[in-house]
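To the wet lab folks,

You asked to see what we're planning to order before we commit. Fair enough. Below is the target structure as tokens, and below that is the sequence we designed to fit it. If anything looks off to you, flag it before the synthesis order goes out.
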């Protein structure tokens, strides 16, 4: 399969180029970055986009116009932007667009397992750690995990989590996201790590995902490449690729 990478000089783009070059069944025909022409990607079967929120929508439109499926890891997709992509594809889409905010298979499974376990424990808290250059806190993965945990506990009619804290230095108990306490650490030498700690009297379950290098995201990217060619229209998230469906 012929692959082009947009954002090829970025950290994730460069890792994707290396992965494609090492794969026996994939061929890198173009590595395109800011200012480069997209003409070299015309013969691609799939484009992988790790660019910038300001340019990704135009890249998606270009791929749709040229009948090329696209796997997007670029962030910044609001519900409005997703609706714009659906409008680009139209009611009889022939091109596949996969937009995934997280390509870590471990992280996707961690979120899924956490939602399965959450109704069975009294309390759930999340500790997430990333490198100091990360701009947002908490991470999108932590916020999504908190949402899934809250939905699962609400569906099971679980009572509020016990917490008698009445005097608190602001932030000492973390941020409340969907009613779940989330604690963010920013430390050198860390790529991405998250622990979901679930407890009831006498028992603790910890679910941990630790990404030690960006290569850990590549199996998800490769699975996305093969998925998108046979699934026209818009797919959001890696969950359907892995056979996981919320709820």
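Sequence we intend to order:
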């Amino acid at each position: 399969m012929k692959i082009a990478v947009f954002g090829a000089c970025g950290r994730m783009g460069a890792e994707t180029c290396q992965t494609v070059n090492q794969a026996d069944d994939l061929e890198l025909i173009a590595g395109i970055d800011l200012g480069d022409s997209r003409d070299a990607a015309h013969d691609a079967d799939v484009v992988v986009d790790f660019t910038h929120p300001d340019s990704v929508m135009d890249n998606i439109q270009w791929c749709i116009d040229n009948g090329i499926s696209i796997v997007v890891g670029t962030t910044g997709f609001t519900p409005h932007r997703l609706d714009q992509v659906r409008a680009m594809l139209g009611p009889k889409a022939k091109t596949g667009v996969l937009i995934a905010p997280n390509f870590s298979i471990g992280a996707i499974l961690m979120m899924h397992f956490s939602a399965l376990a959450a109704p069975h424990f009294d309390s759930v808290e999340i500790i997430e750690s990333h490198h100091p250059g990360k701009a947002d806190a908490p991470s999108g993965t932590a916020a999504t995990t908190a949402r899934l945990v809250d939905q699962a506990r609400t569906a099971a009619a679980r009572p509020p989590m016990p917490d008698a804290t009445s005097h608190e230095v602001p932030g000492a108990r973390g941020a409340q996201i969907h009613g779940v306490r989330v604690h963010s650490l920013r430390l050198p030498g860390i790529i991405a790590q998250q622990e979901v700690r679930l407890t009831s009297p006498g028992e603790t379950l910890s679910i941990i995902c630790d990404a030690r290098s960006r290569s850990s995201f590549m199996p998800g990217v490769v699975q996305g490449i093969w998925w998108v060619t046979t699934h026209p229209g818009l797919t959001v998230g890696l969950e359907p690729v892995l056979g996981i469906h919320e709820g």
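Structural context that might help your review: Residues 2-99+215-236 form a domain with the Rossmann fold fold (CATH 3.40.50.720). The CA atoms of residues 65 and 74 lie 19 Å apart.

Thanks,
Computational group
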